[in-house]
Design goal:
TIM Barrel, 411 residues, alpha/beta
Length: 411
C-alpha cells in the first residue's frame, strides 16, 4: 500500500503522467489533437468498421493509436505489462472483456460465461486487479430483456422488483428457459468471483432493457453480498429516475441484509435514448440538462456516503467536482482514504489527472481496462473517439493537462 500520501491535487500533471514516457506523452498529445476535429472523428467512426469488415490493412494503424491509448491488449496476457505499470503507481485495474452482444445461441453464451470465469481466475492471480466488469447482454439475447421491460411498463414503481418477477412469470416457456439459463450463468460467474474474492461489476445498458439487468444484479447481491460486496450494480444518473431507484436499492439491501454494491456513473447512451424516445413517443428517460445530471450524481454520492457502513461504492466519474466531493465526504466521515467501501475509477486512457492523483493521495483508484480482439473492440473505440470530440467532451481538458506536462518536462 502507498504510505507516502500527497494532498489531493488534480492539477499535478507530474503525478498524472509519471507512468508515460516522453514518447508516449507525445503520442497521446497527437491523438487528442486529432480527436478535436469532429469531422475527422465522424468520418473515422463510419469508415473504420467498414475498413475492418472489408479486411483493409488498417489493423496496425488502429493498434498503435486509438487501441494503444484506450485498450489494455487483445488478450488477457497482453494486459499484464499495462496492469504491472499501473501497479507501480498504486492504481488497480478493472478488467473488461470488451466484446459486445452479437450472436444468440446457448453455446455462444456458455462460451462467454466461461470467458468471464477465466478472467476472474486470471484476476485472482494478479496483485492489483480489484474487479471485473460484465455486460448481461453478453449472456442472454437482448429481446428477452426487452420483453421484460415492455411487460413491466415504461415507468416501474419503486416496487419494480415485484414487477420484474411478474414479467418473468409472463414470459413464454422458451423465453423463461433462456432467462433461467442466464441466471445460472450469472450464478456460476458470481460464485467463482466470491471464492476468488474478485468483485463483479454489472454494467448498466439502455433503459429499455435495464429493468431485467437490475433484477439480475439485485438477485446476485442478495445471494453473494453477505458481509462484503462481491456484486456491484451500475446506476446511470443521466436518467431522471435513478436517484429514486438508488433509494429503493438501499431499502432492499436493508430489508434483505446484504451489502449494496453500487457503481455510480453519469451514463453512456444519451443520444440513442433521446432518439428512441422521440421515435416511439414516450417521455425521454434522460435528464433535461447536464446540471440536473450533475446534481443527481452528487446527491447519489452523498446518499451512499451516508450509508457507507452498508454500501460499497465505486465513483465511476471523469468529473473533477464529483470526485473531489466524494473524497471530501469520505474524509469528513473519518474514513481512511483506502477504506474498502470507497473506490474511484476512470477509463484507461482518460482523466489520468484524477486516477493517479487520487492514488497518490492514498485512495483506492483504478482504471477500467477493456481488452479483446481489435475487431471486437471497435464499437468501444469509436465511442471513446466520439466522446472525446464532442464540444463539451474531454479533449480540451486532456490536451490542456498534457500540454502542461509537456512544458514541465521541457519536451
Amino acid at each position: 500500500m502507498n504510505t507516502h500520501h500527497h494532498p489531493l491535487n488534480f492539477e499535478n500533471t507530474q503525478e498524472a503522467f509519471a507512468y508515460k514516457s516522453d514518447r508516449q506523452l507525445k503520442k497521446s498529445r497527437w491523438l487528442f489533437r486529432l480527436m478535436q476535429h469532429a469531422w475527422l472523428v465522424k468520418w473515422g467512426s463510419w469508415l473504420t468498421p467498414l475498413a475492418i469488415h472489408w479486411k483493409l490493412p488498417i489493423r496496425g494503424l488502429l493498434k498503435s493509436t486509438l487501441f494503444e491509448q484506450f485498450v489494455g491488449g487483445e488478450s488477457l496476457r497482453e494486459t499484464t505489462p499495462v496492469i504491472d505499470q499501473l501497479g507501480k503507481y498504486h492504481v488497480s485495474a478493472i478488467l473488461d472483456y470488451g466484446v459486445e452482444g452479437s450472436s444468440s445461441s446457448d453455446e455462444h453464451y456458455d462460451k462467454e460465461r466461461d470467458t468471464f470465469i477465466s478472467v476472474i481466475e486470471h484476476a485472482s492471480t494478479a496483485k492489483n486487479i480489484s474487479f471485473i466488469s460484465i455486460k448481461v447482454t453478453g449472456l442472454v439475447a437482448t429481446p428477452i430483456l426487452e420483453k421484460l421491460n415492455t411487460s413491466i411498463g415504461v415507468h416501474p414503481q419503486p416496487i419494480w422488483q415485484g414487477g420484474v418477477k411478474r414479467a418473468i412469470a409472463n414470459l413464454s416457456p422458451e423465453d423463461k428457459k433462456a432467462w433461467e439459463h442466464l441466471m445460472g450463468r450469472m450464478r456460476s460467474i458470481c460464485s467463482t468471483a466470491q471464492s476468488r474474492q474478485i468483485a463483479v461489476m454489472i454494467d448498466a445498458e439502455e433503459s429499455w432493457i435495464q429493468d431485467g439487468i437490475d433484477h439480475v444484479a439485485l438477485s446476485m447481491m442478495t445471494e453473494f453480498n453477505q458481509g462484503k460486496a462481491i456484486v456491484y450494480n451500475t446506476v446511470q444518473l443521466y436518467r431522471s429516475d435513478r436517484l429514486e431507484f438508488l433509494e429503493s436499492m438501499i431499502e432492499d439491501a436493508k430489508k434483505d441484509r446484504y451489502i449494496l454494491g453500487v457503481k455510480l456513473v453519469r451514463g453512456a447512451y444519451m443520444e440513442k435514448e433521446r432518439k428512441r424516445a422521440e421515435l416511439m413517443h414516450y417521455p425521454s428517460p434522460i435528464q433535461i440538462n447536464k446540471e440536473s445530471s450533475d446534481k443527481d450524481y452528487d446527491r447519489a454520492v452523498a446518499r451512499c456516503m451516508n450509508e457507507i457502513e452498508r454500501i460499497s461504492i465505486v465513483i465511476g466519474s471523469h468529473n473533477e467536482a464529483s470526485s473531489r466531493l466524494a473524497a471530501e465526504l469520505a474524509m469528513q466521515k473519518g474514513l481512511r482514504p483506502n477504506d474498502p467501501h470507497v473506490h474511484f475509477s476512470q477509463l484507461y486512457g482518460m482523466s489520468d489527472h484524477l486516477t493517479f492523483n487520487l492514488a497518490a493521495a492514498g485512495f483506492n483508484a483504478s482504471k477500467y481496462l477493456p481488452f479483446g480482439p481489435i475487431e471486437e473492440v471497435i464499437p468501444y473505440l469509436m465511442r471513446r473517439a466520439q466522446e472525446n470530440s464532442s464540444v463539451s467532451g474531454q479533449t480540451s481538458r486532456e490536451l490542456e493537462l498534457i500540454n502542461k506536462e509537456y512544458s514541465r518536462r521541457g519536451i
